[in-house]
């Protein structure tokens, strides 16, 4: 079954075997994979080798361990193109998933210097601060912290934020969204965010910062989002 003469390390061969059994549906999302002992016997290798293969797949996000219960196949990550300026609601609906939000904070405040600059606000202009957990099929995917100029959205309220912000911007507020500049970086989740995202520290996240503009060039939102790295894979098409 395994090729012991191959220059490909045995643990990598086991990883590949498990990966193909996951992708062909033999082990569907949520299913338990065989125990370390069973795999050790089935492959005729040491327990260390099996453990190394499984640990690599756990670190890649394909499997997850539950203490005392075993190792299970993770739900596949959402593949999110970085090209179009879509909303969370649109992205999840397009994948046949049900989006929902938990509004943690909503209120007016004076922005800090950086947000004020990014939104090109005068000294006394206020922002709405919105903090939402975004769910897909009831799984927490991301925390979004959004700053919006009050002068652009005087009618913004909690009901709106239970649904799609972009539907409100384009529908109710009748503004045309132009584009955005985004920055993305990897980080370990902060302790307070770990609880909100239902993960245990240490846990990898992707931080995206988006500054969005209307089609007339006026900035309308600054968003700092923390995405669970086990739920997202960002893709982009590039040309030379
Ligand atoms: C996305 C955007 C966020 C925007 C939100 C609106 C990124 C990094 N963020 O999550 O900037 O505010 O969609 O979603 O893509 P909604 O219309 O569903 O409220």
From TrEMBL:
Membrane-crossing segments per the record: none
Gene3D superfamilies assigned to the protein according to its UniProt record, in alphabetical order: Chorismate lyase-like, Winged helix-like DNA-binding domain superfamily/Winged helix DNA-binding domain
Lineage summary: Bacteria, Bacillati, Bacillota, Bacilli, Bacillales
Keywords from the named record: DNA-binding, Transcription, Transcription regulation
Name of the featured protein: GntR family transcriptional regulator
PANTHER family on file: MANNOSYL-D-GLYCERATE TRANSPORT/METABOLISM SYSTEM REPRESSOR MNGR-RELATED, MANNOSYL-D-GLYCERATE TRANSPORT_METABOLISM SYSTEM REPRESSOR MNGR-RELATED
Keyword Transcription belongs to the record: yes
Domain HTH gntR-type: 8-76
Superkingdom to which the source organism belongs: Bacteria
Pfam families per the UniProt record, alphabetical: GntR, UTRA
InterPro entries to which the protein is assigned, alphabetical: Bact_HTH_transcr_reg, Chorismate_lyase_/UTRA_dom_sf, Tscrpt_reg_HTH_GntR, UTRA, WH-like_DNA-bd_sf, WH_DNA-bd_sf
Originating species: Planococcus shixiaomingii
SUPFAM superfamilies in alphabetical order: Chorismate lyase-like, Winged helix' DNA-binding domain
